[in-house]
């Protein structure tokens, strides 16, 4: 009876925590829209002027401003935007004259899919390399991992992307160099490798140092003393503890990758959202910039939440009622 | 028995071989009428004619539509398309077009004169806020529609289904030459009513290829229109591959995944030297000019012709063309580029001449640059103009003129130029139509929206209006040449170069002609593959 209550409390406090975190999104959204709105309109650059390259008479500019909805004072525009947003409508792009919802709906899934493939590479290769170099400390394998992670961090993504294209696409002709094609996994390989390279190196390094720290603990000696196999000690006792900081890193990275990766998307012509937002910033296409950023905020907040929940699973000492007190 | 068996076997072998041969032979001829042409573009802004103001959308639209007229790819002269013939009233104000019968939209409905009345009026309506409405400015009723009054251009009349009458506000003899522009293409009213803002993804044209699909940031697909009024295209399909990076596109071309592509900046010389790729490159001047403007209304250029001339003599154009732009452009010889009827290769007398420059600077009252304050030079950032500006800065420093380069965002730059905050700046102009007027009127007519340089010369204004009225083509060209000379006399502009094409097309693509506006007609293209 007592135990059940304890479990109930655990779940209820966790649920409350999640609800609270989700409610926190609302002020964040208001803050973000207000900030972006102000920033985009404070810049002394008329979006109508930017688009109308020729024949920009006063009349033509005015017609365009009316069409874009930027002829009214800022507070009117903001209020209209908030009302629109409440209906789930992110507005119409100034430049493309298409619904921002459909622009983002076309591009976000591509970024998310690529991010997941990249994260899988990051998890498998990064964690494996980290474990190997920690377990085989100061051996050839350790040096190999150290050198290759240093290289991966240093090499610029666009250069790596270019080399991958030349080797696997042009010379060997075994993998497609650009675009999504029919959406098969072949098209993901090169961009995902380029996208994952830097983070994989960070994951490997963090896994290594975290593992080394854990391995030196007394309970590891105890585990060996119990007669557990090397595999079990490393795989169960050491890894689970060592992974906590790595999970944070990967979780935040997934959030960042889902927001699109301008360089990778450019080199591989990946139809992701990063480039869409980047171009929109250059062209002062405010509805696309704000809409894209809002979705990004959602993703970030959500990923942070997932990471925090994963923490609890990985480390039984972390409990949400405690954290609530801390907060 | 044995012999006859062998004979039988031989006959079978011969027959099989012949069959295989036939199949292969068949394939070879099959290639000539089929195939998918893959072309590299960036994501277009729109495929709706009033809003496709950039080269990418225009390339696609030109395959999907035919307008009243089109341009001959070699001479750039106007040839009939949907309009079979036309008459011009003696006062040059009324144009009457006879439309070809049996021209159909891809939806199957016949194109009638009313479609042009609807489409052109739609372009001019205030609520359309078209990026290209200014092209219709000569038509009666344009100003009213732009001001939001009414919904049909008063100057357009569908006399019957096959007769269209257009009335102009003033005589504009080149009007017919402007009609090849994409903004004049007809759209079907029922489509606009059905799709509204989403029309760009459901375009319905009149050309040799039908629109199939636009997967944003991935590709645009077209297929042959078998119901075309002219000769049907030979290609089965056209696929515009949307790529963000020109280096990646070029690698795709090298891997054989594209038929048409752009040679990336920095790879032009190596491509031309390449034994395989060299012959495939298309490097030719475009109808576009790159120039520096000196505002004659403000100091130090005001009332100082000699100073402006000194600047003109001091700039080494050939160096800018060869070193910075890899020989793709050609040094400017006037405002009007080669390819336009009326072009002269010696319109301008300024060439790189340091001695002359020094002498002119002295005449201007600043011997060796003494007493001349530092001049601010404005460019728009992010488009690679820095290198050209620095080359010019170095050239002017050699004769003693100090220049400070200021980078600005495009819109802010245009405002600063127009307001006279900056008196020396870079500009460029790309032709909308292959006529001299398109280089002279928009840039130098005092009231023109595109005149950012502060250039205003009542005599030039009068000469331009007069040239526009002149119906006889040769006479008109002579008048525009006089205008060009008159403007050059003022030396208010340092003309740098005519832009150039840097395209490349696979060897098996036949019948592909790239004109000086970077347009092409894919309905004439076929593949000759081995």
Task: Give the SSE layout.
The complex is a heterodimer of chains A (327) and B (530).
Chain A: H1 2-23, H2 25-42, H3 47-51, H4 58-68, H5 74-86, H6 100-135, H7 140-154, H8 157-171, H9 186-215, H10 218-225, H11 230-258, H12 262-267, H13 273-282, H14 286-314, H15 320-326
Chain B: H1 2-33, E1 36-41, H2 55-64, E2 69-71, E3 78-80, E4 83-88, E5 94-99, H3 113-124, H4 142-146, E6 156-160, E7 163-167, H5 175-178, H6 189-195, E8 209-215, E9 219-224, E10 237-242, H7 246-254, E11 260-262, H8 268-273, E12 281-294, H9 305-314, H10 317-324, E13 330-331, H11 354-363, E14 375-380, H12 385-399, E15 403-408, H13 410-418, E16 424-430, H14 437-444, H15 458-469, H16 473-490, E17 493-505, E18 509-510, E19 526-527
Parallel strand pairs in B: 1-10, 14-15, 14-16
Antiparallel strand pairs in B: 2-3, 4-5, 5-7, 6-7, 8-9, 9-10, 11-17, 12-16, 12-17, 13-17, 18-19
Task: Please state the CA-atom Rg of chain A, rounded to the nearest Å.
Answer: 25 Å
In total, the number of strands of chain A is 0
Shape label of chain A: flat
Largest sheet of chain A: none
Care to describe what's here?
The complex is a heterodimer of chains A (327) and B (530). The model of chain A is unreliable at 321-327 (pLDDT under 50). The radius of gyration of chain A is 25 Å and the shape is flat. Chain A has helices spanning 2-23, 25-42, 47-51, 58-68, 74-86, 100-135, 140-154, 157-171, 186-215, 218-225, 230-258, 262-267, 273-282, 286-314, 320-326. In chain A, helix 6 (100-135) packs parallel to helix 14 (286-314). Chain A is an all-alpha fold and 327 residues long. In chain B, 33% of the residues lie in helices and 20% in strands. Chain B has 16 helices and 19 strands. In chain B, strands 11, 12, 13, 14, 15, 16 and 17 form a seven-stranded mixed sheet that branches. In chain B, a hairpin with a 5-residue loop joins strand 4 (83-88) and strand 5. The longest helix of chain B is centred in the N-terminal third of the chain and has 32 residues, at 2-33. Chain B is globular. The model of chain B is unreliable at 21-31 (pLDDT under 50). At the A-B interface, helix 3, helix 4, helix 6, helix 8 and helix 12 of A face helix 7 and helix 13 of B.
